[in-house]
Write a structure and sequence with these properties.
By secondary structure, the protein is an alpha/beta fold. It is 29% helix and 25% strand. It has helices spanning 18-27, 51-61, 74-78, 95-104, 119-131, 146-156, 194-198, 200-211, 318-329, 340-357, and strands at residues 7-14, 39-47, 69-71, 85-88, 108-111, 136-138, 163-171, 223-230, 237-246, 253-260, 270-274, 277-281, 290-296, 302-309. GO terms for molecular function: D-xylose 1-dehydrogenase (NADP+) activity; nucleotide binding.
C-alpha cells in the first residue's frame, strides 16, 4: 500500500496573545504523535501591531523559523498568497471585523470563541463566507478532542438511556480586585465578563449532550433563563447562571450552567445524568483528560463504574486544526462536528442571557445589530 502524502496546510496567525501562542505551539507538534498521517501544519505568516512584535512571537514560539513571515498589519496576512487559512485569536469584540476582512480576502477562517459579539454579527459573517466560497468555523476546540468523541458515543449508544439533566460549570479566579479595569476580563469594550469569556465551555457540553442528541432532532431550547451578578468594578458579569430546557422533540431535558471569574474550578466540572446512569467529566472542562461512566441498576444504585483517561502530545488545539485542514481539502464550507448552526445557537443563547442579565456593550462595539 502506497504511503499517504499528507496535505501541508498553511496558516496565517492574527494576533500574538496567549491563545495564539498555544494554537501555534500545537500546530508545530508532529501529527503522527496523535495518529494523524493525512495532514501536516505550517505557519506561513504572523500578523501583529508591529513587525517587531510579530518577529518576537515567531522567535519565541516557533523557534525563529525563517520561513515564517512577520507582518506589522493583519492586512498583510490576509493578502499573503502562501496562506490557506487564517486563525483569529484577537479579543471577542474584534472577531467580526477580523473575520470579515479575512473572508473578503478569500481566506478560510478559524475564529476563536465566542465567534462574535452577537448572533446578528455571526449571521452576517456566514453570509459573507458563503458569498466568497470559504470555510468558516468557530474555534470550539473541545468538540474535536478524543475524549469528547468518546463521551458522545457513550451518551448516544443507548445503554444509559436518554439524557435528562446536565450540570456544567467553568470558573477561574482572575483576582479581579488586583488587576486593571482595562484587563480583557473586566473591559466591556473587549467583551469582558464570565459569560462571553468562559461561558462557551459549559454551554458546549449542553449542546453536545442535549442539542446534538438524536432524540432532540436538532430542536432549539424551548426556554432560556439567565441571571448575572455584575462586578463592582465594571458593568460586566462576575458570575452568570443560566438554564436551558429542551422539550420540542422526543427529548425532555434541561441544562443548568454556570461560569464565574471569581471562583476556582469545581470537580467534576460536568455531570450528565441519564435515565440509567451518569457521565462525570473532570475539570478543566475545556480540556478534560478523563471521565467516569456510572451504570445504574433498576434500583438506581451504581452497578458498575468505568473510567477513561486520554493522553496526547500538545495542548489539544491541534485537533481543531486537523478538522479545518480536512474540511478545506474536501471542499467543505463548514464542519459537520461544529457547524454554523451550533455557533448560531450559542450566540442566540448568549444574546438572550445578556438581555435578561442587563449586559450591554458600549456604543459602537457591535458592528451588526438586529
Amino acid at each position: 500500500m502506497a504511503e499517504i502524502t499528507p496535505l501541508t496546510f498553511r496558516w496565517g496567525i492574527i494576533s500574538t496573545g496567549g491563545i495564539a501562542e498555544a494554537f501555534v505551539k500545537d500546530l508545530l507538534v508532529d501529527p503522527k504523535t496523535r495518529e494523524v498521517h493525512d495532514v501536516v501544519h505550517k505557519v506561513a505568516s504572523v500578523g501583529s501591531r508591529s513587525v517587531e512584535k510579530a518577529q518576537e512571537f515567531i522567535d519565541r514560539v516557533a523557534g525563529g523559523d525563517k520561513s515564517i513571515k512577520a507582518f506589522g498589519t493583519y492586512e498583510e496576512v490576509y493578502a499573503d498568497s502562501d496562506v490557506d487559512a487564517i486563525y483569529i485569536g484577537t479579543p471577542h469584540t474584534y472577531h467580526y471585523t477580523n473575520a470579515l476582512d479575512g473572508i473578503k480576502a478569500g481566506k478560510h477562517i478559524l475564529c476563536e470563541k465566542p465567534v462574535t459579539c452577537n448572533a446578528a454579527e455571526l449571521r452576517s459573517l456566514i453570509v459573507a463566507a458563503k458569498e466568497h466560497n470559504v470555510f468558516f468555523m468557530e474555534a470550539v476546540w473541545t468538540r474535536f478532542h478524543p475524549l469528547t468523541l468518546e463521551v458522545k458515543r457513550i451518551a448516544e449508544e443507548g445503554t444509559l438511556g436518554l439524557p435528562v439533566l446536565v450540570h456544567a460549570d467553568l470558573s477561574g479566579n482572575f483576582n479581579i480586585h488586583n488587576i486593571p479595569a482595562t484587563h480583557r476580563i473586566l473591559d466591556p469594550a473587549l467583551g469582558g465578563g464570565a459569560l462571553l469569556d468562559i461561558g462557551p465551555y459549559p454551554l458546549f457540553w449542553a449542546i453536545l449532550a442535549l442539542y446534538e442528541h438524536p432524540a432532540n432532532n436538532s430542536s432549539a431550547p424551548t426556554k432560556i433563563t439567565g441571571n448575572m451578578l455584575k462586578t463592582p468594578i465594571t458593568p460586566v458579569d462576575s458570575s452568570t447562571v443560566f438554564s436551558l430546557t429542551f422539550s420540542a422533540s422526543k427529548l425532555a431535558a434541561q441544562a443548568s450552567l454556570s461560569c464565574s471569574i471569581t471562583l476556582n474550578p469545581v470537580e467534576p466540572g460536568v455531570t450528565i445524568r441519564f435515565e440509567r446512569g451518569t457521565i462525570l467529566i473532570s475539570s478543566p472542562i475545556y480540556r478534560p483528560k478523563e471521565f467516569r461512566v456510572q451504570y445504574h441498576g433498576k434500583d438506581g444504585k451504581i452497578e458498575r463504574e468505568e473510567k477513561r483517561i486520554f493522553e496526547y502530545v500538545g495542548g489539544g488545539w491541534h485537533f481543531e486544526a486537523d478538522e479545518v485542514a480536512r474540511c478545506v481539502r474536501d471542499n467543505k464550507k463548514e464542519s459537520s462536528l461544529w457547524g454554523h448552526n451550533k455557533s448560531l445557537l450559542e450566540m442566540a443563547i448568549f444574546d438572550e442571557v445578556r438581555r435578561q442579565g442587563g449586559y450591554k456593550f458600549p456604543p459602537g462595539i457591535e458592528k451588526v445589530v438586529e
